[in-house]
Amino acid sequence: MSTETQIQVVMPQMGVSVSEGTVTKWLKQVGEPIAQDEPLLEISTDKVDTEVPSPGEGVVAQILVPEGETVEIGTVLALIAPAGSAVTEPATPERAPAPEREPVVLAAEPAPVAAPAVPPPQIADSSGNGKSFVSPVVARIAAEHGVDPTAVPGTGSGGRVTKKDILAFIESGAQAPPPVAPAPEPAVVSAPQAPAVPEPVEVAQPAAAAPAPAPAPVAPVAPTPAAPAPAPPPARVATPAESQPELLPGEALEPMTAMRRGVMEHMRRSLDTSAHVTSAIEVDMARVVALRQKLKPEFAQQGINLTYLAFIARATVDTVKDYPWINGELRGQSIVTRPFVNLGIAVALEEGKGLIVPVIRNAQDLNLQGTARAIQDLAERARTKKLLPDDVQGGTFTITNPGSFGTFHGTPIINQPQAAILGTYALVKRPWVVQDELGNDVIAIRPLMNVTLTYDHRLVDGAYAGLYLRDLRQRLETWDEAAY
Amino acid sequence: MAERTYIQAISDALREEMRRDQRVFVLGEDIGVYGGAFKVTLGFQEEFGPWRVIDMPLSETAIVGGATGAALMGLRPVAEMQFADFISCAWDHLVTVAAKQFFRGGTPVPIVVRLPSGGGFSGGPFHSQNPESSFAHIPGLKIVCPSTPEDAKGLLASAIEDPNPVLYFEHKHLYRRIKSEVPNERYTIPFGQAREHRPGEDATVVTWGAMVHTASEAADELAGEGFEVQVLDLRTLIPWDKERVLEDVRRTSKVLVLHEDTRTGGFGAEIAATIAEEAFEDLDAPVMRLAAPDTPVPFSPPLEKAFIPQVEDVLAALRELVAY
After folding, report:
1. Do A3 and B224 touch (CB under 8 A)?
2. Which CATH number, 1.20.1300.10, 3.90.1170.50, 3.10.180.10, 3.40.50.970, labels domain B2-182?
C-alpha cells in the first residue's frame, strides 16, 4: 500500500439527528483526477439528498463504499491521493477491508459540517474494543465537558473514541466566532486559573494550548506531526485570525501573558461548565466595624492588619459547616462534600491586570487572628510572587473582594471545580430602617455591605443559597467576640 | 567537548574521580596490568599505583566485602564485576551488609559496583543478563543505568559522590557502538531525573539502558508513518523519576514500558503498576510492556535475537499502541 498521506472522504453529518447516509451515486471513479470542492458523490439521508464535495485536490485512489450502501456518519467513503502522487493501485471498487495500519492521517477538511474526526470504516473488528469501550481518560474528559462519548466519531481500534478524538470534538464544538465586543470590565474579578482540582489531575492541556501560536496553516494534506498541540487540523484552519490579528489605525497590540491565557481559558470553561446564579444580601456591618476598631491595635502588635475580609472569611467558613454543598463539588455523577474548608482568596495583581487565588488550607481550624494572618501572608506572597504551587491548589470555596474600589455589586465566576464563590463589596454608610429601643421604626445611619453568593445551580438550589446567606448575615450582624 | 564512546566516558569519569579524590580507588579481577575485562582501567595502575588499583582474587564476595569494609573506614571504593551476572556471588555482602548498614548501624557505605550487563553478542546465559530488578527490590541500594556517553560520565561521578551503595549497570552492547560529544570538564548528573531522548506526543516509551536506542530507532521509523513517539530514558531506576513519567503519561495517555531484562518481576512491572495506580484517569490505552521472555539468555544468535526486544518488536508494539 502506498504510504503517501491520503485524504479521507467521510460520510458527513447532514443534521443533528441524522446518524447514517446512503451512497446513491459516485460522480468520479478510481483514477480520475478531482479538484477541491468538486462534487465526488451523491448521498441520501432521511433529511436531505446532496452532493459531497472533495475535501482536497488529487486523484481518487479508492472507493470504499459502493453505491446503494448505507453507512454511519463518519465512515470513510473514499480516499483521495494528493495531486502529483501516483495511484499505484487501481483499487478495489468493492468495500475493501480497512486499510489496515495504513497511516491515513486526517487531512484538513473544510467540510461544511462538524465531523471533526474520522473513524476508519466500520469493518468488523472482533478485538472487542468496539465503540462502546470508553477509556479512562476519555471518560474523564467527557465528564468534565459534559460530552456524550458515544456521540463522538472514533478513530481508534474498532471505532473506539480516542483521547484525540474527543479533544478534537470538543474543540470543534467550542470554536464559535470570537466575540466582537471587548471583554467586560475587570472590575468584578472572579476566580482565575488556580488549578482548582485537589488532585494533580490537570485538565488535559490541549484545550488550553490551542490558542498557542499555531504554525501557519499548512496545505490541506500533510499534518505537522511535531505540532505542540494535538489539535486536529480543522480547528487550526478555523483560527488563522488568532495568530495575526489585523490592526486598525491607532490600535496597539499587546502579547498575552500566561496568566491571562490561563484566566481566559478558565473563565470560559467555568461558564461552560456551571449554571451560574448570583444571590445578594445586605449586611449591617455595625458590629464588625466596632469590633475591628477595638481589636485593630491588639492585632497590629502581632504585625497583623485586621481587615473586614478576615471577619467575613471567618464567618463564611463557619457558615459553610451547615451547608456542605456550598463547599462541595460535582464530580461525574456524584456530589463530593468534605469536612474541611480550603478557602481561596482572590488577590488582584499588577494593578488589576491579573489575579491569583491562593488557598488557606483547613481554614476551619483558624480563629479570627489565624485567618487574618493567613490572608495577609498569602496576599503578600501573591504580590511578591513567592507563592508555592501548593498554595494555589486544592481550594474548596473562594472569596473574591471586588468592593475595594467602591463597587457595590457583581456576579463573579466560579473557580472550577468548586460549587460557589462569595463576593464582598464596598462598605458604605446608608440610611437604614432599624428599630429603636421602644420597637419603633427609625431611620439610622448604618455601615452596609452587599455580599453575593454565586453558585452552580446544578448543585445548589436558590433556597439553599438563600439560607446560607441568611446565616452568614446573622453571624456578621451578631458577631460573638468570644466565639472567635 | 570531545567525541567519546560510552566505554571511554566511563573510563574518563573513573580516572577523573581518582585524580580529584584520594579516597577513591578501584578493585576487581584483572583490573591492574591487564586493564580489566573490557579495558576500562587500562593504564590506571601505572598512574595511580597498585594500592589504588587492586587486583583481587576470583571472588566477588571478597571484592564487595572488601569494598564495604573500606567504605566503612572512610574510603570510596569502586568495585568492578567482570560481568554483572557474577554479582550473585556477592549477594550477601551487598544485600545483607552494604544495603542495610546505614539503617542498622548508622554508618554509610559509599561503594560503587560497576556491572557490565546486557546481551546482544552471544554471550550466553552467564554473560548477558540485566539483573537490575533483583536489586531494585532491595531497599538501601541505588541503581544507575546510563544509555549515553554523556550520562555515563556524569552519572558515574554522581555514583561515586553518593553516600549509599550504588550499582552502576553499564551496558556492554553500548560500549563501543555508541559515541557522542561529552564535555571535557567534570560534571555530575543528579539521580532520579529522567531524560527525554526523543520528543513525541502520540505515545511514550519508558525505558533505560540499551533499549533507549532500540526504542529511538523504532520511533524514528514510526515518524515516517505519521506518529511521533516520545522516548523517555529513566537513567536511574532507584530512585526513578516517577513525576516525570506520570507527567508524560498524562500528556500522551499511551505508554509502552520497555526493558531488556526478563518480563516477570522486571522493573517495568513497577512502572506499569504505578501508572495504573496514579494516572488511571489519564490513560487512553492499556499500559503495554515489552521485555525479554522468562528464560535464561540463549547462546544461539538467532535465538538471542528473538529473546532481546528488537527494533521490529518495539515497532509492532508501538503500532498497536498508537492505533488503539
Report:
1. yes
2. 3.40.50.970
Contact between B126 and B85 under an 8 Å Cβ cutoff? The reply is yes
Question: From the candidates B127, B171, B173, B259, which is the catalytic residue?
Answer: B127
Strand ranges (E), A250-377: 276-284, 329-331, 334-336, 343-345, 347-348, 355-356, 359-360
CB–CB of B207/B234 below 8 Å? yes
Coil, strand or helix: which one is A417? coil
A171-201 per-position pLDDT tens digit: 887 433 333 344 333 333 344 433 333 333 3
B284–A162 CB contact, under 8 Å: yes
When mean pLDDT is compared across A146-155, A254-263, A438-447, the lowest value belongs to A254-263
Q: Give the alpha-carbon dihedral of B248, B251, B253, B258, to 10 degrees.
A: -20
In this prediction, residue A14 has a pLDDT band, given cuts at 50, 70 and 90, of low
What are the start-end ranges of the E strands in A248-319? 276-284
The question of ipTM being above 0.90 is answered as no
Instruction: Output the pLDDT for position A342.
Output: 96
Distance from CA of B226 to the nearest CA of A (A): 6
Contacts of B228 in chain A (CB under 8 A): 225-226
How open is the CA angle B201-B293-B134, to the nearest 5 degrees?
85
Domains (range + CATH), chain A: 7-174 (2.40.50.100), 261-483 (3.30.559.10)
In the predicted structure, residue A275 carries a pLDDT above the cut 70: yes
Which pLDDT value is given to residue B4? 97
- Residues of A within 8 A of B324 (CB-CB) are 129, 156-157, 160, 162
CA A424/CA A412 separation, integer angstroms? 10
Residues in chain B with CB shorter than 8 Å from the CB of A160 are 324
pTM: 0.50
What is the C-alpha separation between B114 and B100, in angstroms, rounded? 19
- B324 contact A CB<8A: yes
